[in-house]
Every structure is written in C-alpha cells, then in structure tokens.
Design a protein that fits this description.
It contains ten helices and eight strands.
C-alpha cells in the first residue's frame, strides 16, 4: 500500500492570542477541504489545543502537540503527559526538536517520550538532524545516534507508527534550506539505519519528512528531489494560504 504524503505545521510559540489561533485554525480548516490524499497536521501551542480541537469537525486534518512529558504521571509541575493529550484528541506529538534539545532534552528523554506516546497510540514525530556538517561526515554518526537512542525499545511492530523528521539545525529559519540532493542523501542514510534496526521492508514503510525553511515555492523540489514523504513546516504554517499551498503540492505528488 502506497504511503500517503504528510504535511505537519509546527506553530511553535505562536500566535500570541487564542483569538488569533482560532482565526488561523478556522481558515486552515476551510481551505483544507479540497485536500484528498495528504495527511495534514497542525501542532498549536498546547494552551490552545483543546479549544482548537473542539472547534473542528473536519476529518481532513489532524491535531498534534509540540512536546510531551517523558513521565507517565506524578509530581512534575508544569508537565503534560501523553495520556492527557490523548484525552484531548491529539493524534501526533513532536519529540526531539532541535529547539527542545537546545534546552537540554537528551536522546534518553526522547526515547522515554516515544515510549509514552506509543503506549497511548499517539504517533511520535521524531526530529533528527545535525548541527553542522564536516568533511569527515561525522554528522552522519550524529544522526545515527539520535535514531538508535531515540528509538531504543521501539519494537518492529510499532516502528511504522513513528514519523521521522529530518531537520538540520542550519536550515531552520535560514534564507535557503539545504539542497534536495543533500536531503535525498540523508533520506537514504536514515532508511539504512532503520533497515539495520528493523529490516528493509519496515524501513521503507516508515514516513520520513524534511523540515527547515519550507515554503510554498520550494515544497515540490524538496519533496521530489529529496524523495521524502512530506514536510515539517514552521513559519509558513502560520499563514493559512501558504500552508494550504504546501498541502496542495503534497496532494499532487500523492
């Protein structure tokens, strides 16, 4: 069965108010109606999640969160557990984003979060990517370690529930992302690592996305040239027209 293309919007710490979030959410909901074959996901700030999810009756897209606690419950002030976000209807959760890693999130933390999410039947979106390239290709070992440590404990039966998002730190917010050829190389490498862990058949069934300075103008080239299954979108997901245009590109490639 052919994998469906996927586009995930990471709103990060935006917009500023619930009213703005509602307007953006409703605009995306209206526009996404013509998307037939692509899985579209938005990940708003968690404080807005419940209201936005309640307002939507559309089955054209799903909702996710940008982070989750590594613990299942207990005395952890300020944390939100996987069971909590499940009860609100979250279908996806981003883990291991470079911005979270910069705040101290470790591969071991990511591993625990993935386990907690899978236990609640929420699809983890595992972000991996090098901070810098080097001529000795040590960055490949860096990506491999993120994958092997983050996926430690994930059994073969569950690996296709995990989405991998390749997002190099240098491409986030950059004027120009890395080339589609470079993305293709990383895509092949990620599949090789997954094949070593779970076998070739399972590796090719895992959804692999690219993220970093994605916009409507470069979306087709990034997906076609990089041979990825979709895109993790940051800034452009805060514009309903841009996010819809990217989703339409994904739909045309499905």
């Amino acid at each position: 069965m052919k994998k469906r293309k996927m586009v995930i919007g990471n709103w990060k710490m935006s917009p500023d108010t619930l009213k703005e979030a509602q307007v953006l959410n409703d605009s995306i909901k209206r526009k996404i109606g013509s998307i037939k074959k692509t899985i579209a996901v938005i990940c708003p700030p968690s404080i807005f999640f419940s209201t936005l999810k309640t307002r939507s009756s559309s089955k054209k897209f799903f909702y996710g969160v940008q982070n989750v606690a590594k613990e299942r419950g207990g005395a952890y002030t300020g944390e939100v557990s996987a069971s909590m976000i499940k009860s609100l209807g979250a279908a996806f959760a981003i883990v291991g984003h470079s911005e979270r890693r910069a705040m101290g999130e470790t591969d071991e933390d990511v591993c625990k979060k993935i386990q907690a999410l899978l236990a609640e039947k929420i699809r983890p979106v595992l972000c991996v990517g090098e901070s810098a390239m080097d001529e000795n290709a040590n960055y490949l070992s860096f990506i491999k370690n993120q994958l092997t440590k983050g996926l430690s404990g994930v059994v073969a039966a569950n690996i296709t529930e995990v989405v991998i998002a390749y997002e190099p730190l240098s491409a986030i917010g950059a004027k120009n992302p890395i080339t589609s050829h470079e993305i293709h190389q990383r895509n092949i490498f990620i599949k090789k690592v997954l094949a070593d862990l779970y076998g070739k058949a399972k590796a090719f069934d895992v959804t692999i996305l690219y993220g970093g300075s994605v916009n409507p103008d470069n979306a087709r080239e990034l997906v076609e040239g990089g041979e990825v299954d979709g895109l993790l979108v940051g800034r452009a997901s805060l514009n309903a027209d841009d996010f819809f245009r990217i989703a339409k590109v994904m739909d045309s490639l499905s």
